[in-house]
Amino acid sequence: MQPDYDDCWLRYREVRDEALRASYRRLCSHAYVSEQSRELGAVREELRRGLGGLLGRDPHLWQHPPRTTDGFLAVGTPADMDVVAQCVDEERVADLAEGGYVITTGEWEGTDVLVVSASSDSGLVYGTFHLLRLLSNHEPIEDVHVVEEPASPDRLINHWDNPFRGSVERGYAGQSVFDFETLPDLRERYRDYARLLASVGINGIVLNNVNTQIPGRDSANEAMDVLEGWRLLETRYLEKLTGLASLLRRYGTTTYLSVNFGAPEKIGGLDTSDPNDPEVAQWWAEKADEIYDLIPDFGGFLVKADSEGQPGPYNYDADHVDGANVLAEALEPHGGRVWWRAFVYGSHKDRAVQQYDTFEPLDGEFRDNVTIQVKNGPIDFQPREPVSPVFGQMPETELGLELQITGEYTGQHVHACYHVPMWKEVLEFDTDPEGHGTKVKDLFTDEGTGMAGVGGPGEDRSWTGHYLAQANLYGYGRLAWDPDLETEAITDEWVRQTFGHDPDVVETVTDIMHDTWPAVIDYSTGGIGLMHMMYNGEAYLENHYDPGPEEWPGYTGATEDGIGKDRNSEGNGYAQQYPDALADLYDDPESCPKELLLFFHHLPWDYELSDGRTVVQTLYDNCHAGVEEARRLREEWRTLEGEIDEERYRHVAERFDEQVEHAGIWRDRLTDFFYDYSGIADEKGRVPRED
User: Fold this and answer.
1) Using N-to-C axis directions, what is the helix angle for 39-55 and 188-199, rounded to 10°?
2) How big is the CA angle at 247 (ends 24 and 244), to the nearest 5 degrees?
3) Rounded mean pLDDT of the chain?
4) Which residue, of 464, 499, 534, is where some domain finishes?
5) In percent, how much of the chain has pLDDT > 90?
6) For residue 434, which of 310, 341, 502, 656 sits 20 to 30 Å off, Cα-Cα?
């Protein structure tokens, strides 16, 4: 029975080009696959599914090299298969980083062989998916030679799923994929999700929300925890996770959990969770032992502490080193790791300042199995913000880059917004252009470092709530594996695997994807550095979808005399957290990048920019331009009617209708806001509007 959800980029449609299909059939109709581990069962299953679709007929899967064909595929390690050993450089394969693989051609007893080899089972899984990606993208394989190793050792997905509510915080695709109450029963959808993750090289998944508790009220108006993710550390729920962890393991994905820092009190019955209390340390050690008895390859803990209502070491007059290290010590005997989020704010009026002030002085004090997980920018996943100054300035601490896959501030998967260009901007950023010259992407190559993408799919048929938002999950995985990949290459891969190879379709979808992010920036921020322009709402279910710039005076800095925030040497000194070359760049409005100007500077409304326009006129123009661009993108999509399947065409077309309408609401609210403070009319007569 066909599952009632999309197969995303793993569509495996038959290759129609006769010459190419004949080439693929010659080398892939017969496959000799090792059977030395459970992971290789996943390889055989994927080859059957993928080759069956691409070749137009099921492949023969052998347990020995076939002798009646002029070519075949071999998948295995040199140690397990003599065929492979004859076709690859064994030393080179042995030296591959964990998860790395080789795809090459060779010869065995006069027969041509296409080989996928690795030194680890996970490498064979990733290599198999890479081969299928080559075929899906119609790449030649007759004389192929690919050597791939992941740039980042840890490539995680951080789900924000609420286990006992079935909801997903910042999830815009329905309820959680994971039904924790029915575990250990496994749904077929779990397997298909594991396939999606493995196909782009993701090797770790945090199953639950970092917000493991949120204070609320029950129907009797008594205090309670609205979210109870902390309960996953209870023995009865840990036992439920074993089957899911085993399934994920077959696809090279390790299981992690978000944990509540107050768990020793909530679960263990202790009267404190003080990280310096020996009984607390003992409780965490015993809990770690219990977890690893059940899940031997458990990855470790993700922790959000001392932020937004989550308990932390500050509750006990301790610091983040104390908090992270007590957990790390418990996990260390098992090879586990603590991912400790740097998203901490509350003691400073401007959260941009706090992360560097909090963590940079602690550099070198964290245990080796602690990774400090830092958001790409200092605020909170805004459509565009400067790169966090923490990067490049904690050389003695393992860092992880946190990116948001889900579209919290970029239209919540109603609006189309492709995040890969944003992430490339971050990864290519030079953290000290006049010093050591290290780009952000260079910081995540050593053991203990990595990348974490926030926001997993939901129960929606599309997985992501918008068919075009699938590209963000795909693109995150590809960049986490290889941050040197260009945006254009990633987009081309995804479009061809998702929508096929018709040149007009490929060009149209590609152009739409590349132009979505700039449009969102323009109509939702004005395009020159403003942050937090959205309606916030109440409780933990903040809206974050509609405009509400009046709610954030501390971030917009809007006054009668001007707009923006002085985060420079004349203001709160945030710019001076960067190395000198960057601090000087940001400190002067004449040299500050235009796209960040109002983030670093409060400027008069009539301040003239380099193009001769004033600040307020630029804001007006950009808001209007963003809406016009959204309209243009909608019209571009409409040209695809009849060229792609009706379901995906209609879904995206209707989402574009909503995006255009909602972008207009943003434009009107923001331009009214700018006019109300500045009193300066739009020189093009668009503001103020006649009722």
Assistant:
1) 80
2) 150
3) 95
4) 499
5) 91
6) 341
Q: Is residue 102 scored above 80 in pLDDT? A: yes
- CATH, residue 379: 3.20.20.80
Residue in 611, 625, 599, 603 with CA at minimum distance from that of residue 678: 603
Contacting residues for 37 by C-beta, under 8 A, at least 6 apart: 121
Query: 66: cis peptide before it, omega within 30°?
Result: no
Is residue 30 classed exposed, middle or buried when 0-12, 13-18 and 19+ CB atoms within 10 A define those classes? Answer: buried
Confidence of residue 225 (pLDDT cuts 50, 70, 90): low
Q: Determine the 3-state secondary structure of 163 from DSSP.
A: coil
Q: Kindly provide the b/e burial profile for residues 330-349, where b requires at least 16 CB atoms within 10 angstroms of the residue's own CB.
A: bbbebebbbbbbbbbbeeee
Residues 177 and 121 in one domain: no
Domain enclosing residue 393, as ranges: 154-499
Cα→Cα distances 429→18, 76, 423, 585, Å: 44, 39, 10, 14
H/E stretch holding 216: strand 214-217
In whole angstroms, what is the distance from residue 352 CA to residue 344 CA?
10
pLDDT tens figures, 486-540? 999 999 999 999 999 999 999 999 999 999 999 999 999 999 999 999 998 764 4
Between CA 306 and CA 478 the distance in angstroms is 32
- pLDDT for 326-340, tens place per residue? 999 999 999 999 999
Active-site positions? Answer: 308, 380, 408
Instruction: Encode pLDDT of 633-646 as tens digits.
Output: 999 999 999 999 99
CATH of the domain at 86: 3.30.379.10
Spatial contact of 491 and 513, defined as CB atoms under 8 Å apart: yes
pLDDT digits (tens, 9 = 90+) for 375-430: 999 999 999 999 999 999 999 999 999 999 999 999 999 999 999 999 999 999 99
Domain boundary among 121, 148, 175: 148
Instruction: Estimate the share of the chain in helix, then strand, then coil, as percent rounded to the nearest 5.
Output: 40, 15, 45
Tokens of 189: 């959808």
Helix (H) or strand (E) holding 279: helix 278-294
Kindly state whether residue 581 falls inside one of the protein's structural domains.
Answer: no
Residue 98, amino acid? E
Domain count, the chain: 3
For residue 59, tell me if it sits in a domain: yes
Q: Are 74 and 116 in contact (CB under 8 A)?
A: yes
Place of tokens 């944990």: 259
Q: Is residue 579 part of a domain?
A: no
CATH of residue 537: 3.90.1330.10
Distance CA 93, CA 102 (A): 7
Through-space distance between the first and last CA atoms of the chain, rounded to whole angstroms: 56
- Mark whether 119 and 195 lie in a shared domain: no
- Quick check: 660 and 630 in contact, CB under 8 A? yes
Q: Clarify whether residues 403 and 552 are in a common domain.
A: no
Rounded Cα–Cα distance for residues 251 and 203 (Å): 8
Cα torsion angle, 503, 507, 508, 513, sign: positive
Q: In the numeric block, which tokens belong to residue 452? A: 């974490």
Q: Has residue 6 been placed in a domain?
A: no
Question: How is residue 467 written in tokens?
Answer: 């068919």
Q: Which stretches of 469-522 are assigned E, i.e. beta strand?
A: none
- Evaluate whether 592 touches 555 at the Cβ level (below 8 Å): no
List b or e across 211-250, with b for residues whose CB sees 16 or more CB atoms inside 10 angstroms.
bbbbeeeeeeeeeebbbbbbbbbeeebbebbeebbbbbbb
Q: How far apart are CA 314 and CA 338, in angstroms?
A: 18
